[in-house]
Specification:
CATH class of the largest domain: Alpha Beta
Helix content: 40-55%
Oligomer: single chain
CATH superfamily of the largest domain: NAD(P)-binding Rossmann-like Domain
Strand content: 5-15%
Strand order of the largest sheet: 3-2-1-4-5-6-7-8
Number of helices: 12
Structural class: alpha/beta
Order of helices and strands: EHEHEHEHEHEEHEHHHHHH
Bound molecules: 1,4-dihydronicotinamide adenine dinucleotide, (2S)-3,4-dihydro-2H-pyrrole-2-carboxylic acid
Length: about 270
């Protein structure tokens, strides 16, 4: 089964590299990429064929669209004449609905919407997938196989996609923001930057492993760290005073709303 990736920026390369790591034959992969220098970079790095979008659409069994939501309409209009019934189109774009894609492609083309995230680069990705209206089990299984090469895959109803985008799609950025803030705090408290970075990164990795390995609720794990009258309680009180929990809620609502706006083309 050949797969084409149209749009090989951050997320397109993440998918491509994951497929290569998972042992997909490079001669079964193709890339369509607008920027010539980026295309050359990918050819050199992976030995993958970079072809026109139309050639990619005509030749591949599965066409993964990884361009920005704002570019999706133009790309679909460009490749529609080359698509045929029986092919699978997979969109990784925020906001873009399966109905929008189906309205641009020929009858009989199956569409699956995916929301991945960048930890896929280290095979710890979280991808949610939703079927369009002409999908069967084999199409969902194919997308599960594509995405499970780089992490976990969850099937969800499409109406949850904007919320999923706000939580796991954008999620790594929030975590990196917290990490960055803690490192800066360490420096402010007088630690060398390298020391602060090592402390924060290992604390994050250790905490993530505890969540996954114990299966305990985060509240339980937080309470274990919070000694009565101790340092953690003092810090958590400040986070509540500064309304950090409310800020997280507002931030994720904003991301969900932006995903909805992208669906409307703005
Ligand atoms: N970066 C992330 O963490 C995530 C991104 N996504 C989705 O992935 C998509 C791509 O995002 P990024 O990779 O971050 O953006 P990006 O800007 O790094 O990549 C987009 C790529 O598409 C190429 N491109 C644009 N128009 C094209 C065309 N007509 N034909 C061929 N290639 C074309 C650009 O040259 C660029 O290399 C977006 O729709 C985004 O919503 C989804 C989840 C996470
Ligand atoms: O920021 C964005 O729009 C994309 C979608 C989810 C993560 N990055």
């Amino acid at each position: 089964m050949s797969t084409a990736i149209i749009g090989a920026g951050v997320m397109g390369e993440t998918l491509l590299s994951g497929l290569v790591r998972a042992g997909r034959r490079v001669d079964q992969l193709m890339v369509g990429e607008k920027r010539p220098e980026r295309a050359r970079e990918l050819e050199e790095r992976y030995g993958v064929a970079v072809v026109s979008n139309r050639e990619a659409a005509a030749k591949a069994d599965t066409v993964a669209l990884v361009v920005k939501p704002q570019d999706m309409g133009d790309v679909l209009t460009e490749i529609a004449p080359d698509l045929r019934a029986g092919q699978l189109v997979v969109s990784l774009a925020a906001g873009i609905t399966t109905a929008f894609i189906e309205s641009h492609v020929p009858e009989g083309v199956a569409v699956v919407r995916v929301m991945p995230n960048t930890p896929a680069l280290v095979d710890e990705g979280m991808a949610a997938i939703s079927p369009g209206s002409h999908c069967d089990e084999s199409h969902l299984a194919e997308v599960e196989s594509l995405m499970s090469s780089t992490g976990k895959v969850l099937r969800i109803p499409e109406k949850q996609m904007d919320a999923v985008t706000a939580i796991s799609g954008s999620g790594p950025a929030y975590i990196f923001f917290v990490v960055e803030s803690m490192i800066e705090a360490g420096v402010h408290l007088g630690l060398p930057r390298t020391t602060a970075t090592e402390l924060v990164v290992q604390t994050l990795v250790g905490s993530a492993a505890m969540l996954r390995e114990t299966g305990d609720h985060p509240v339980v794990l937080r309470e274990q760290v919070t000694s009565p009258g101790g340092t953690t309680a003092s810090a958590l009180r400040e986070l509540e005073v500064h309304r950090v929990r409310a800020a997280f809620l507002a931030a994720m609502e904003a991301a969900r709303n932006r995903s909805r706006e992208l669906a409307e083309g703005s």
